[in-house]
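How it folds
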Amino acid sequence: MSRARDVAYDCVMAVSTEGAYANLLMPTLLERMRLEGRDAGFATELAYGTLRMRGLYDAIIERASGRDPRDLDAEVRVSLWLGAHQHLAMRVPPHAAVNETVSQVRRERNEGASRLANAVMRRITERDAEEWLDLVGTDLATRHSHPAWVVKELEDALAADGHEGEVAALLESDNSPARVTLVARPGLIDREELIQQAGGEAGEYSPYAVVLPGGRPGDLEAVAEGTAAVQDEGSQVVAAALAAAQPVEPGERWLDLCSGPGGKAALLGALAADGAATLDAVELHPHRADLVRRSVRAVPDEVVTVHTGDGTTWGESGTYDRIVLDAPCSGLGALRRRPESRWRRQPEDLPELVALQQSLLANAERLLAPGGLLAYITCSPVLAETREIVAGTTLRQLDAREAVAAVTGTTARMWGAGPHVQLWTHVHGTDAMFLALLEKPGA
């Protein structure tokens, strides 16, 4: 497992010190080291679990060492995080966790640093996880390894949505690895065919979702061809709701205003093709626009057109019948999938994000034709990014629960009090996606 530990170390170091993204970097590292199967799974769990739980591990390291972990060399701090995770969460024998951590520090720093690591790890392995939680996990933020401000935002959002008192369950779900879910893009591949090809099972809510038991989805023929892709089931549901909200008329023009990296654009493009509609996909950054083009490659060229442009100013007024605005946001609804984002985001980021969301929504409103529909979506339940944004528009808010019920084959009442829909990781097993459906008067 030494190579697997090296991969995990390289991943956590790059994420923590260079701003890398674990979900993008880890596949590259695994391929470079030619890790597969059990070794790849060990490396992935060690890296992702460490990134999720580093807040708790800092509290434990501080107690075990008597010093602020932020004062440690990065190589030492990261190695101690990894060692703590192996002992407390992965059932690695104490002697192995100590020895591997000490060896890592000796390679990356020096003999003196390795002696410090040895002393700290021996203290850490004197207690098991529950004993450490009893000692340092006296508040929810530390116990579940989330910044305190994130806990407060999630707590407020839960209470507003009728889930008061459930924050501990949500935080716990954030620390559980997400299942790998594929989307069988309609008209391009049948879900049953994808289930047979992938060896998975049907998702619970999306009629296009296939949940995999494991493995490497990129090796599947359907994923390579673009007829299927990795996409969270909640993301599938809120995107498809725009098409399900009312019957599609041939010739409709649709718009994905913030389309990168292209998952929702590809699903909407497939649905548009089925309804004889067309889709424009707009993305600000050229490299992300290229990702959108790759994502929609299996959709007929005449259906989807990808543009590089600024979503706050792009387009001609009143030209689109349906618009999806998957707004840039804090991403606090996908913390299980993006383990580093809880530490990367800061409360002072919210005002800038809110201003951008308001500008995007104002332009989407301008672009919408009379009688047109707009799906405002975020991968965040934070009230300032969701309900409060929608409250500032002149568009009429429809009952999104009806559209989600139509997609999922359920009843509207199971999706909350409305008129918006807020998915929750601990309730639905999806990312915590927010959906509001808005209509422009005047049809």
Q: What stands out?
A: The mean pLDDT is 96. The CA atoms of residues 195 and 223 lie 12 Å apart. The first strand starts at residue 181 and ends at 184.
